[in-house]
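Q: How would the structure tokens look for this protein?
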Amino acid sequence: MAIAGHWAFVFGVLGNIISFIVFLSPIPTFNKIYKKKSTEGYQSIPYVIALFSCMLWIYYAFLKTNTTLLITINSFGMLIETIYVSLFLYYAPKKARVNTVKMLLLTVVGGFGAIILVTQFLFKGVVRGQIVGWICLIFSLCVFVAPLGIVRQVIKTKSVEYMPILLSVFLTISAVMWFFYGLLLKDVNIAAPNILGFIFGILQMILYAMYRKKHKPIVNVNVEVQNPVIILDDNKKIPELTEEQIIDIVKLGKLVCSGKIQMASTLNQNASKEVKQQTEEA
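A: Here is the predicted structure in token form.
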């Protein structure tokens, strides 16, 4: 038992270290959001669910013994997730902001408040800890399932632009550490969800490897139209005249018309001269 306790402490410390990195891994994502002043295609679901999960694990840890390592890491997680959600709300468009507020009210305010009230008034002692432990287990699964929305987007768009790969990698490593921590403490509520977390983490890394270098080709087509044409019903194509060409034609028409008038007057003058000469000769 003593050896198992020591190893549990080791994996707990490692779990704290890796989880600390997990909580910090979205920083590049929010740095990008800060620079672009927009959340773009990013979703707030993983951060809201993670915040709720941290609150539940702190509550569970206070109901159990020898769970100091759970309290330390989840306290930090609750703080950093609150910062992430606040930044998301600040830069998100109106629709995403409204959806995020609804999720916060549903989970953090309504859900967590209801869990505390129900477990405090309806359950006592060990049973209370077991009930809260099962609730923690379910929502820990939600933490690992939440990125499936991003997985669906990656498969649909064949782009990993909005997949936080660092988060996926460290979640996978963290799942391994906390699995052994829960296993050594014989706490199924800690160990069980991390099995699924490991599976989902591997899935996300496989998808990232598949679509990392796949980009949609951008085709630049430079078409220079010199003579725009109008297609008639008889399949004949005649050039469409520009404004300058029309002006030139009008000028040319005027010149032609004036030339015809001058030619006509000249012919009339010549004809009258010939008639006059014939009259004189007669």
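The longest helix spans residues 243-281.

The CA atoms of residues 228 and 242 lie 9 Å apart.

Upvote if useful.
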